[in-house]
Design goal:
The chain is an alpha+beta fold. Helices cover 32% and strands 32% of the residues.
Length: 155
């Protein structure tokens, strides 16, 4: 499928579109982003898998889109594969720290953890991939995250 065909299809869906499997897609000034949100309410955590591409061509290649039908079927599994392939980020928010969600990105043999709004950066020398891994990170680093939250407006 040519990029122009997807561009024309998306132009009828502006400013955003949600696939039948719950992936939200936004096309703004030629750049395209996607996110898939889910929650674990009983544990008071929310998760968002997201990716940003500079062009529709990169988006189509990254998600392996060959037809409009492929595009409409995108969902959690597609975003998850992109995260595991280091092409997407996982944003995790603990309700206690909802003003400062943390982003997780796999990089080589580690996971980068960051939050621009908190001036926070950390590296974990393992791949965090399961919801339990992210929740465990929050519990192990509670004081470090709380300090970043307390100091977020001082810089």
């Amino acid at each position: 499928m040519p990029v122009e065909e997807l561009a024309q299809y998306l132009s009828s869906k502006k400013p955003g579109f949600q696939t039948q499997n719950g992936l939200s897609i936004y096309l703004i000034d030629g750049a395209i982003s996607s996110n898939y949100d889910f929650e674990m309410e009983e544990l008071e955590f929310s998760f968002s898998l997201f990716s940003e591409e500079e062009s529709l061509g990169e988006f189509m290649e990254g998600f392996r889109i060959q037809r409009i039908k492929d595009f409409e079927a995108l969902g959690y599994n597609n975003s998850w594969i992109r995260y595991l392939n280091r092409e997407a980020d996982m944003e995790v928010c603990q309700m206690e720290f909802e003003e400062g969600p943390l982003c997780f990105r796999l990089h080589k043999m580690k996971t980068l953890v960051f939050a621009a709004s908190l001036h926070f950066y950390d590296e974990v020398y393992e791949h965090l991939t399961l919801p339990e891994d992210f929740i465990s990170y929050f519990s192990k680093n509670k004081s470090k995250i709380a300090t970043a939250m307390a100091n977020r407006y001082q810089f």
